[in-house]
């Protein structure tokens, strides 16, 4: 195992796996490492890099995949970032079902370590992801409800990430609608 990869032990999931892990402060360290790599690779454009998803929320159980969001001024800027991101190990999946998004993953040995989404800063998707993260960080009761829902969904859909995501969507929508 390379020195760069030694930090990634016990991180990542195979494509058909839903597994929750207790929150770890390592996730913030891994985000910072990956954020630094992304900023260095994408130095041609001014990008914003945010840690989103449950790995960014202290105390939240989460699928052990680091969720990162890159913000660009315009989605047309995303084209200039594809090759630099590929150069540091990311695979581009295009919009992958979400218009206006560029979706990337970083995997090692079929384990997805990082899920990366790119949106224009201040777009609806950008603002929703930030609102969800910030509300869950600041409201312990809401976070507990989310943790319980995710645990139930994991037990119902242990090998179906798509259904797990669908199950979370209504809750996430309600959090953003109330925000």
Structural summary, described in words:
The protein has 179 residues and is an alpha+beta fold. The protein has a single domain, classed as Beta Polymerase, domain 2 (2-Layer Sandwich). Helix content is 42%, strand content 18%. It contains five helices and five strands, in the order H-E-E-H-E-E-E-H-H-H. The protein has a five-stranded mixed β-sheet with strand order 1-2-5-4-3, with helices on both faces. Strand 4 (102-108) and strand 5 form a beta hairpin. Helix 3 crosses helix 4 and helix 4 (140-156) packs antiparallel against helix 5 (161-178). The longest helix has 18 residues, at 161-178. The radius of gyration is 16 Å and the shape is globular. The protein starts with 25 loop residues before the first helix and ends with a helix. The model has no long low-confidence stretch (mean pLDDT 91).
């Amino acid at each position: 195992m390379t020195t760069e990869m030694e930090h990634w032990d016990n991180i990542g999931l195979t494509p058909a796996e839903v597994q929750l892990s207790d929150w770890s402060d390592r996730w913030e360290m891994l985000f910072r490492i990956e954020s630094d790599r992304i900023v260095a690779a994408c130095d041609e454009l001014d990008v914003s890099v945010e840690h989103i998803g449950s790995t960014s929320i202290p105390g939240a159980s989460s699928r052990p995949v680091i969720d990162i969001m890159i913000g660009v001024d315009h989605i047309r800027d995303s084209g200039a970032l594809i090759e630099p991101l590929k150069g540091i190990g990311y695979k581009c999946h295009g919009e992958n079902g979400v218009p206006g998004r560029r979706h990337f993953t970083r995997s090692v040995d079929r384990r997805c370590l990082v899920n990366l989404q790119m949106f224009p800063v201040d777009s609806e998707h950008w603002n929703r992801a930030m609102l969800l993260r910030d509300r869950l960080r600041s409201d312990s009761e809401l976070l507990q409800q989310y943790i319980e829902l995710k645990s139930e969904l994991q037990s119902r859909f242990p090998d179906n990430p798509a259904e797990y995501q669908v199950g979370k969507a209504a809750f996430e929508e309600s959090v953003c609608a109330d925000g």
